[in-house]
Design goal:
Largest sheet: 7 strands, mixed
Mean pLDDT: 93
Strand content: 25-35%
Number of helices: 6
Radius of gyration: 17 Å
Structural class: alpha/beta
Length: 195
């Protein structure tokens, strides 16, 4: 992500402990601190995946805004995979990881990432979606990948920015959305909330 935004004296807080979000923001030249808080992640039944990531991003940002106040830009974010209309979370164990990976083999799914910004009494929320097409792979290939351990804390049981890229045929949309932070969307929202 090319960062043409002059941060100046703007203090930024990332309301997420995600190493991937931290890496994307750091590589983009932003200086920030990380403050997280526990938020209720339950959602009304029937909530769509895109509404879910927007709602959870907003909850995270608002919870940290209460800690930091209004003079700090707060960034909340949440990522969810959707396959055949159903959300896919992180695997519970290796057998669950195998079940998830085999359900994705040779098929398309979507990754949705929400972003919420709070600053000076204003808040804006949006999301971005990317389609991911997985290669057809065998149970042995899935098992070999699971043995790397990379998949265990990842929604959908794979990391597109790591070894898991070998399982992916192509993406349609922003790559950073799949990693966990849509940088182009963030820059657009940042320009809007700070003007």
């Amino acid at each position: 992500m090319e960062n043409k935004f002059d941060q100046g004296e703007l203090k930024i807080v990332l309301a997420s402990a995600s190493p991937r979000r931290k890496e994307i923001l750091t590589n983009s030249g932003f200086k920030f601190e990380i403050i997280t808080s526990d938020v209720d992640e339950s959602l009304p039944s029937g909530t769509t995946a895109t509404d879910a990531v927007s709602m959870l991003s907003a909850r995270k940002a608002e919870a940290v805004r209460k800690i930091c106040g209004d003079e700090v830009l707060i960034i909340g974010s949440d990522t969810l995979l959707e396959h055949e209309g159903e959300p896919l979370g992180k695997p519970k164990d290796e057998s669950d990881a195998k079940r998830i990976l085999m359900s994705l083999s040779g098929k398309r799914h979507f990754v949705h990432t929400g972003v919420a910004l709070c600053y000076k009494g204003k808040s804006i929320v949006s999301h971005d979606s990317t389609a991911v097409y997985m290669k057809p792979y065998t149970e042995k290939e899935a098992t070999d990948y699971i043995k790397t351990g990379e998949c265990m804390d990842k929604a959908g049981a794979y990391a597109i920015q790591g070894i898991g890229a070998a399982l992916v045929e192509k993406t349609e949309g922003e790559f950073d959305t799949v990693v966990g932070f849509p940088s182009k969307l963030f820059l657009k929202m940042l320009a809007e909330i700070t003007k």
